[in-house]
Amino acid sequence: MRQPRCKLHSLTFAVQTALLCSGLALAVPPASAAPATPAVQAQVFDIAAGPLAEVLNRYASAAGVALSFDASALQGQSSPGLQGSYQVEDGFSRLLQGSGLRAVRQAEGVYGLDALAPQRSPGSDVLQLDAMTVSTLRSDSAVGETSQRVTVIDRQQIEQQLALSSDPGQVLSNLIPSYSPSRQKMSNAGETLRGRTPQFLVDGVPQASSIRNDGRSSYTIDLAQIERIEVIHGASAEHGGGATGGIVNFISRRPEGSGVSQHAGVSLESDDRFSKDGLSYKMNYRLSAQQGDWETLFGATWQERGAFYDANDELIGVAYPGEIQDTRDHDLMFKLGYWIDDVQHLQFSANHYELKGNNDYVPVLGDRAAGIPTTARKGDPQGDPAFNENRQYTFSYSNQDLYGNVLDVQLYHQRYRGQFGALLSGSFQDPNIAPIGTLWEQSRSDSEKWGGKLTLRRKGLFDGLLDLTGGVDLMRDKGEQVLVQTNRSYVPPSTYDNQAGFLQGDLHLTDKLTLMAGVRREHSELDVDDFRTVWGTNNAGGVSVTGGKVSFGKTLSNYGFNYQATDWVQLYGGYSEGFGMPDIGRVLRGLDEPGLEVESLLELEPIVTRSREVGLRLNFDRVDMELSYYESFSNVGERLSVNSDGNYIANRERVEIQGYELTGNWHIDDRHSLRGSYAHSQGKSDTDDDGKVDTRLTGLNISPDQYSLGWQANWNDDWSSYLQYNYYVSRSFDDPRLEFDGYALLSATVSRRLPVGSLSLGIDNLLDEDYFTYYSQSARIADDYNFKGRGRTFTLGYQVEF
User: Fold this and answer.
1) Where does the signal sequence lie (predicted)?
2) What is residue 782's DSSP assignment?
3) What are the residue ranges of helices labelled H in 116-258?
4) Checking DSSP bridges between strand 719-728 and strand 743-753, what pairing results, if any?
5) Concatenated DSSP letters for 78-144?
6) Which helix (H) or strand (E) holds 289?
7) DSSP string covering 741-753, please?
């Protein structure tokens, strides 16, 4: 493996670019007044009058910040609205004038409301909870007051990252400690959170198929349609199965402002060669309208991506699981909402997303042992283009005051199709169709979900001592995997039914100490018809398998505490369990012994992951920090590996993982802020089945240690910049062929507010670092997966509101 290197001309270019950006910034005359917040420039708002809780939510949505508060505490208060140009905290001050409250920026950039005078009961200094959309935390606990780490990525952070890359995996890796580096491919298999698979949601709706998780769940909606990303670190059963590593919930945009407002944006992306085939284009448009009790939102994105180049200006290779280079995608989102009264709201939402390859390139095999990367050349690849297609529809009802309770109901339908590229695999061969070794085939995963969630919350029981949350979740997921070119069934049609009930309670023992505990009962049933595996599973025509129903029942628990030791020190900790099914499709399609019955398959046993965590939060005037240590283990877990045919194998064995995460934010002054983080993780599995873990996990399962640093600078009302540095530390594994050399990436953006709209320039991999991706070095020993990472990349964007 070749060591990462930094070319001299790259360093010279970076210095020249930095001097140019600094010169532009210093040449601008200083603003007459400093912004009130270090991260957000002044914006123009037109928020209509109404109930204060409703107005605050609309303002937060328009400003692109996350707001957490208790709507019932504002009952009866109204607001005249807000019109004009304001910075975020100035707007909050105007809206809250006369209410006895002020907005406070809390940990992770989330805003809460604080009383100006001691007029509240002890232990409730900060108003929290109850947002307009369903929170990832079903009890709507506020960020910074939970028993486990929670991260909120707000709209401004998303915009900063989109100025560098539209890859969701890269955005998550840049901003979430312990999230694996992006593969820079359509597949996110191997991208883990705390060493385990995260559950991806869009507005609380699970994205992965329960039958055949094909590792593409982060590519089901465009990030331009996202208002914020909520992340729960560690095992969780908040939204059912699949969250053994945590939850990543993409919360989509909401209607904002009053009347009609529109947004349009365009961007152009290129490698530093500015080659025609490396150009990418993106357009997005959004219309928001509110009139009386009605509100609507329409959003559309269209993107055409060119080829990717590495730091040596060579084409990066293509892989059959799917690419994001040389693709086009579009996303259409529509929302229609209606306010029955001040506390009842109805909403219908639809989102259609498709990402499809252009099929313009074929791979050029590399040589991993010699350090030669897999590249690409123009050509006509076998088969049809790979694609992701997702259709999601939701209907929701919320009532903020149902006899003193808060009720949220959501019904959803999701239709997903994910097609892989063509592959000359032994698993696909069949001499009845074509001579062995000549059959190019590709598979497609199909999934259709129907589901519903009901959540009922009651706060302040027994004179403020107890908060309770309960609910019921229902889901039916019908799926299969087909071989496209020959119309064969690869994974038989199967139906997965899941029902769950849960109860969660927060006990406020004192003004400073809160205990949390909850229980969730999961019941799942898998129904598989009789089927026959394809010929390639045993090279003898396949085997017949007797179908049947398999039922599972699991009771999952969680408990923890949150202790506010002083005004600026908080301790927390807890235990939580996550429930997940193994990859059912891999198990079923790989059966190669005759006479098997589905009901007797031990491999279909569910995965229960147990996670323990302790943490410390520090919150000073301008500095906030969080340190957390975690351990997780599963007695019958799932460790991914790759067999000789290049296919993933799910090994059922004990897995143990430990690690810690440190994050911090320093608001140096009203114009500059720093963000830093460090994450360390390590894990082992029991490969010899003796009850003791003995083998270090590879990069297919666990992320490298990572240092991250970000500097946000608002030079004045018009100019701002952002500098980001990520260093991934080298790591060794038990297999000497897997060795991660480590690499560092520096990226920067500069933006200029214009008389009409705003202009931004982003430079990803500013130093043109030459490196192999983490996945290629540490997860897979294969010449056809020896991919370099992207070299220096420019993104020029223009956005306008009207």
Assistant:
1) 1-33
2) -
3) 155-162, 168-175
4) antiparallel
5) EE--EEEEE-HHHHHHHHTTTTTEEEEE-GGG-EEEEESSS-S-TT--EE----SSPPSSTT-PPTT
6) strand 280-291
7) --EEEEEEEEEEE
CA atoms within 13 A on the CB side of 358: 17
Tell me which residue has tokens 């605050």. 56
List average pLDDT for each run of 10 residues in the chain, which is 802 residues long. 39 39 36 36 73 82 78 64 76 74 66 55 33 61 84 91 93 93 90 92 93 89 94 92 91 85 95 93 95 93 97 94 94 96 93 96 94 95 95 96 93 97 92 95 96 94 92 96 96 94 95 95 92 90 91 92 94 93 84 87 78 94 93 76 55 88 93 95 89 90 95 93 96 93 96 94 97 94 93 96 90
Q: Considering all CA atoms of the chain, what is the largest pairwise distance in Å, rounded to the nearest integer?
A: 82
Contact 106/112 with Cβ under 8 angstroms?
A: yes
Sign of the alpha-carbon torsion through 536, 537, 538, 540: negative
- For every residue of 355-411, which 3-state class applies, written as one string? EEECCCEEEECCECCCCECCEEEECCCCCCCCEEEEEEEEEEEEEEEECCEEEEEEE
Instruction: Supply 696's token pair.
Output: 């270090």
Separation of alpha carbons 747 and 765, rounded Å: 5
> Which structure tokens are listed for 12?
């010279």
User: Residue 153 half-sphere exposure, CB side, CA atoms within 13 Å?
Assistant: 25
- Cα 418–chain centre separation: 18
**Angle between helix 52-63 and helix 88-95 axes, rounded to 10 deg:** 170
Name the β-bridge partners of 760: 751, 797
Spatial CB neighbours of 734, under 8 Å, sequence gap ≥ 6: 695, 696
Residues sharing a CB contact under 8 Å with residue 549, sequence separation 6 or more, in sequence order: 525, 526, 527, 528, 598, 599
Report the candidate in 634, 633, 682 with the shortest Cα–Cα distance to residue 660.
682
- Alpha-carbon span 491 to 587, nearest angstrom: 9
What is the dihedral angle through the alpha carbons of 185, 190, 195, 196, rounded to the nearest 10 degrees? 100
Q: How far is the C-alpha of 234 from the C-alpha of 575, rounded, in Å?
A: 10
CB 363 within 8 A of CB 784: yes
- Give the pairing of strands 205-206 and 50-51: unpaired
Specify the residue for token string 């883990």: 192
Q: 3-state DSSP helix/strand/coil percent for the chain, to nearest 5?
A: 10, 50, 40
The answer to whether the beta carbons of residues 728 and 774 sit under 8 Å apart is yes
- In this structure, what token pair is assigned to residue 224? 């331009």
Query: Which residues on adjacent β-strands are paired with residue 515?
Result: 507, 561
Q: Which amino acid, residue 41? A: Q
**Helical axes 168-175 vs 155-162, angle rounded to 10°:** 120
User: Do the beta carbons of residue 681 and residue 702 sit within 8 Å?
Assistant: yes
Instruction: Assess contact for 325 and 308: CB atoms under 8 A.
Output: yes
Tell me which residue has tokens 């313009």: 360
State how far the Cα of 199 lies from the Cα of 214, in Å rounded to an integer: 13
Q: Which two tokens stand for residue 509?
A: 């023992």
β-pair type (743-753, 739-740): unpaired
DSSP structure class, residue 485? T
CB 699 within 8 Å of CB 724 = no
Q: Look at the block and give the residue holding tokens 């460090």.
A: 678
Task: Using DSSP, state whether 183 is helix, strand or coil.
Answer: coil
Under DSSP, is residue 57 helix (H, G, I), strand (E, B) or coil? helix
Q: What is the pTM of this model?
A: 0.84
- Rg from Cα positions in the chain: 26
